[in-house]
Write a structure and sequence with these properties.
One of its GO terms (molecular function) is metal ion binding. By secondary structure, the protein is of the alpha/beta class. It is built from six helices and 14 strands. The longest helix has 18 residues. It starts with a strand and ends in a 9-residue tail after the last strand.
């Protein structure tokens, strides 16, 4: 199976770039399944139902969220209506929506997508992500209940993301980090057959401060004072993520490639 995961879509510029490039990538790379992290797609904070619809129309089979899952009020209802939206598994127990789902690709193969929030350096403490994902993977074994499994580990600390990769090794096809917006150069297949990348990066303008127009973040760093709101940068976008190929019989990854298309970053892809 050929799977593409795209990192955090950043604001209007990120949405436009995904809308332009994803249909072409689906065709050129003959993709079977696409996951997009959309938690920053609406003004850099959260995702509206309308913008989620745009991502699905661009070619996403599933859109994951993150710690900003419900920053946009209409997502409280949208995540209940739209089963292709995945919020963090270990979010508040009363949160609407689901933290995992089994999808079916165009050839009838089953794909598990799950998202968990880490705890290190995050805004607040969440339920243990390791026990949360363990319970899901135990009932969806690779090569049995599902032909592929994708885990979106949404957190700040690279150490926590790497630990999740090792924890899921042999039980997931891909463990990929999101949230920090800068792609890491550690794409690899772990000994048990799980593809891993510490952070997928963002679909945003990299002439910025992690996707935000650089003026206000720099002012706050230099002066310690706030003047304006953060606003997403609007320059040329690099669509960033990770591409994997898997063995349908085992669900294990056979290939992994970093993806960087367009914009300022060095280009890469399968």
């Amino acid at each position: 199976m050929k799977i593409l995961f795209l990192g955090d879509v950043m604001g209007r510029a990120g949405r436009a770039a995904v809308a332009e490039r994803l249909p072409k990538l689906r065709d050129a790379w003959k993709l079977d399944f696409v996951v997009v992290n959309g938690e920053n797609a609406s003004g850099g904070m959260g995702l509206t139902a309308a913008h989620a619809k745009d991502l699905f129309e661009a070619g996403a089979d599933c859109v994951t969220l993150g710690d900003h899952a419900f920053d946009q009020k209409d997502m409280m209802q949208a995540v209940e209506r739209e089963g292709r939206l995945i919020r963090p598994l270990n979010y508040a127990k009363a949160a609407p929506g689901r933290g995992h789902r089994v999808f079916t690709d165009g050839r009838g193969r089953k794909v598990l997508v799950a998202q968990v929030l880490g705890n290190v350096f995050m805004r607040r403490a969440y339920d243990d992500p390791f026990s949360a994902i363990d319970a899901i993977l135990r009932v969806h074994p690779l090569g049995g209940a599902v032909q592929a499994a994708v885990v979106d580990m949404h957190c700040e600390a690279t150490s926590e993301k790497m630990a999740m990769g090792h924890f899921c090794d042999g039980r997931a096809s891909l463990v990929v980090g999101t949230h920090t917006h800068i792609p890491t150069a550690d794409a690899q297949i772990l000994p048990g057959g799980t593809a891993f990348q510490g952070d997928a990066g963002m679909c945003g303008d990299y002439l910025s401060v992690i996707g935000m127009d650089k003026a206000e973040p720099m002012r706050r760093f230099v002066t310690g004072m706030t003047k304006d709101r953060f606003t997403p940068a609007m320059g040329a976008v690099t669509v960033s993520g990770v591409y994997i190929e898997t063995d349908d019989a085992t669900g294990r990854a056979t290939r992994i490639e970093m993806v960087r298309q367009g914009g300022r970053l060095e280009q890469s892809g399968p």
